[in-house]
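pasting for the record
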Amino acid sequence: MMQAPHIGTMNAGARGTIADVAGVTVGHCTLNQGPIQTGVTVIRPHPGDAYREKVPAGACVINGFGKSIGLVQVEELGVLETPLALTNTFGVGTVANAQIRAAIKANPQIGRDDPSVNPLVFECNDGYLNDMQALAIDEAHYLSALDACSEAFERGAVGAGRGMSCFGLKGGIGSASRVAHVGEQHYTMGALVLANFGRLPQLIVAGDALGRTLQAESTIQPEHGSIIMLIATDAPLDARQLRRVATRAAAGLARTGSVYGHGSGDIALAFTTAYRVPHDAALIAIPPLVSDTRLDPLFQAAADCVEQAILDALFSAETVAGRDGHRRISLNEALRTRT
């Protein structure tokens, strides 16, 4: 199996995934049952209770053709209150209910003496390979993915990425990391993507217009896909700065050939593990923040991480057959066929 080329000049972390940011873990629950090709992926920002110990976050909607839950409150308050969840479009409500139940189990006063909890679920449409009308995702799948969270996790056609397509090939979950130097300090940044977008002739791999050699398209097909880009860092940033980091995900996305088509839901979110926001605190102690004038290395790391993570999804995925005989071949299979 071929591996994705390294993007940019920055070094990757030890694992080359979002788990290089200390405390961040990822888990999957994969459904692979004939026409049911889907799942749930969960990203935990730290091992503790996300409701009691929130982390700063900022989001950017590049193109808003999406059905996510929880973004409005993140934009207003700038914190996460639950782990991040990824699934298919029709599974969003079910996974949000599972997040709410899990938060209430850990904090029985939620919605009573305590404020409500903000579930955060992102989606892409996997309906080409997966029978979304079967509504196969249930709350137990979220809990299974949550329990599976680990520093070591699979990428490719797993979890929420099981039924996803990317540039007309098999897409899914991809991840990457970079180490950014800001003055004398160095910070780790990691990305995880749910890649489900693009048309094959547009595919660019490390600057090479590879898609054109794999398919010559005579008619322009509309963009129907989406991508969710999640970025973690240990750099001390506030919510405003994190939104600026999230915005740079668009640069990495564009370098793979995306034009953010009309029917594409392209959403990025960045969070930091550098400090936490206690739920009950009257005053919040935060470390000195990186100056805005020193953010460029982190912007570069975000763009490179996202581009690398998209390529990781493509190179990690296997060929998958799903509903009604639909099939998506992997990039590796497409390259073998070409040669």
